[in-house]
Each structure stands twice: as C-alpha cells, then as structure tokens.
Input
Amino acid sequence: MGAAPAGSMRRVDDAAAEALVGVVEVFEDLQTVLRCCERLVTELAAGGELDPVVVEAVWTTALLSYARCFAATGDGVALTESDLTSTRDLTSTEASPEVVEWHRLLLQLRNHYADPAVNPRERFSVGVAQDANGRASGIAITSARQPLVDDLTVRQTGAIAYALSGLVNERIELRQKEVFDDLESWSKADLDRLDPLDVAVPQADDAPANS
Output
C-alpha cells in the first residue's frame, strides 16, 4: 500500500484506540443528557403551554443516553457506581449524598420508559356499570395519566451528568496520550499499512464569508 499524502489520516483499530472511542461515546451520551435537561427545564417552565409529547420524548432520550453510559460492554470504559462516589464535583450537587440511589432510580425509570410491553404515560382499566338490579348495564374504559417529569428531577439529573462529563473528559485526555505515545514508536512503513481514514475537508465555498 502506498504512502498517504501529507496531512492524511490512517485508521487505528487496536484495543487502545477502540477503548478511546468507547470513552468518547460515553462523553457524547453525557452531553446529550445535558442538552436534554436544558431543553426540559425550558419546556417545563412553559406551564400550561408545555407539550407533553416533547417532554416525554426528550426525557426518554435523556434516560436512554444516561443508562448507556453505565452499560458494561467488556472494554472497561463504561461508568460504574464507584465513579459516582469518587467524583469530587458530585459531593456538591443537589443529589448528594444520595447520588447512588438517585442513579439507580434513573436506571429504573429508563426501564419503565423503554419497556416494549408497558405504556409509560397512562394506565387503562375497564369498569362495568350496574343497573338498579345489580346487573351489568354497560362498560367504561378509564385511564390514569402518569405525571410528567418534574423540574427538580431534571436538574438533579443534569447535575450528575455535568459532574461525570468532567471525569470522562479527563479519561479521554489520558487515553489519547496513551494511543499517541504508542503510535509515535511506529515506523512509517507500519503506519502506511493502516487503512486510510476519510476526513471531510471544508471546501472554499463552505467557508464563512468575511463581513
């Protein structure tokens, strides 16, 4: 395989690079949780004008993203409960000192909203009406609406995600250094054997116009 042009990129697929990717994915999920919480705070402040569909959709995305950060995949990059108790910033959040219990509650809520067999927003029942003689005279379908997520829950979830983002960002920096330190010892021939990695280069037309 020929040498790549100057400034080109090669794909690194070893275990260290894969672990770095895993940590970056955890960070991105935490950022998604933060963006969802910011949106929910704004939406919930709308009071009677809030859209319950938007609230449920954004809150479900936040819960799925949060839980994914703790999903063990065998590569050692997932967050654990010990990270919650060892992260200094979490000691000053509104969720402390029950941060682990709060974390477990979020995972339970994730299961509730992601359950393929249970409606997370409403509970339905069938009732029978009786006439004066006690015989069935009709049926009715009743429902009990489940409450939407509240502002305090959203803010506590955002506080946890924010603190964990700092922890994960530090891990990204460490793993980046590990990967690069290893690659620095590779010869040009070794690097040239790696597959090219396509990187989008901004075109001149895409550049912002000067004011």
Q: What stands out?
A: The first strand starts at residue 9 and ends at 10. The chain has one domain: 9-121+151-200.
